Structures are given as C-alpha cells and as structure tokens.
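ugh ok fine here u go
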Amino acid sequence: MTDPDLLEAVVHQILSSEVFPDQRLPVAGERLELVADVAPHSHAFFEIAVVLAGRGTHVSAAGEVLLQRDSVVVLRPGDWHGYTGCDGLVVRNAYLGADIFSLLSAALIPSDGPPTLAHPAVQHAMRLLEASIDEPWTLDRLATSVNLAPGYLVRLFGRTAGVSPMAYLNRLRAERAAGLLIESDLPVATVGAMVGWHDPSHASRRFRACFGLSPSRYRAAFRP
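structure:
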C-alpha cells in the first residue's frame, strides 16, 4: 500500500469528540467481539482493554503481544494499536479522557472549592491538533483558533495534559509516523511530511525524542 489517500486510513485516529459527547465527563466503555483484524488506529484518550474470552495478537509501537483471557492492555493518548489473528476475541474497553486523572485528583483531594474542569478551549485545541496534525501549527495560530493568549493557553494546557500544546502535537505526530512506518513502504522523508515534519533532519530528531530510535531503526525493529 503506497497511495497517500489509502495510507491516511491505515492509522485512523479516534477523536475525543467521537467517544465523549459530554467533555465534562470523559468516561465511556463498550464490549467488543472481534472476529477480524482491527487496523492500526490511535486515540486522543486513555484506553484500558481487558480480554474476556478468545485469543489474538495485540500490535503496537511496543511490538506484538499474544492475548488470552484476562490479558490487559493500557494505552496512553496518542498511542496507536491494532489486533490481528482474532479467534473469538472478546474485549471490554474503558475509555478515559486525557484530563481524567486531574479531574479525579481534584475530586479526591480535600478542597475549599469545587473541582476545576478542563477549560473548553483546551479540549477545542486538542481536537484541532488531533484532526489536522499535518497542518503548520504554531502556538500563536493555535491560540488564535481558540481565542486565548498564547501564554494562557500554555498554562491551561499544562494543567490538563501535563505538557505544552506543541509537545502534545509532536507526540501525536510521532505516534502517527510510527504507524505509517510499520504499515507502509513509504520513504521516511515522505512519512515525516505526511505528519507535518517536512524537514527530514527535524523529523528524525523529533521522532527519536519520543521513541529513542531513528525512524529507520524503528521500522527495522518493529515491522513484522
């Protein structure tokens, strides 16, 4: 598979807005019966998957892991994964928004006031980045898009995600690039450009910062 339009579907990204209709309560779950392979995809939220029955193989940036009853998979926001060799695989998934732990902390730690929910502008900013990681985003452009001053957006974003908006974007880009490296034969430079890194040297540095390997070594290490 080398057609760019097809490759965009290789690592489908599931957005928070598709899973949590009410961002004030970013918690959801579902039971899945997998009878065929599940193509690589990534999430903008935490996922905890517990195998209830059957067998299969979980594929992610960390490699392949055989699954059986009571196996547990935990994924961070931005991680990509998929399933192969599904044989009666039944999975119970729990989905948790990226800011769920800050919400829980606020609820569990005694306070004089009500817990602070994530600012709507932060959720909006995350959705913008998730939906168009190949865009030439800058902090100023993102802040303008959500009607906030750049410095204020950085502070709000840090409270919710624990990182700056641009660090969050780089993680999304690295995860998308990792999926393309595994699932396609595209040159490394082309993969970088598809996720918004048009300078190959810059792309390699950013990718190595996330995974500890250059894109070419990552592909050699994890591609089946």
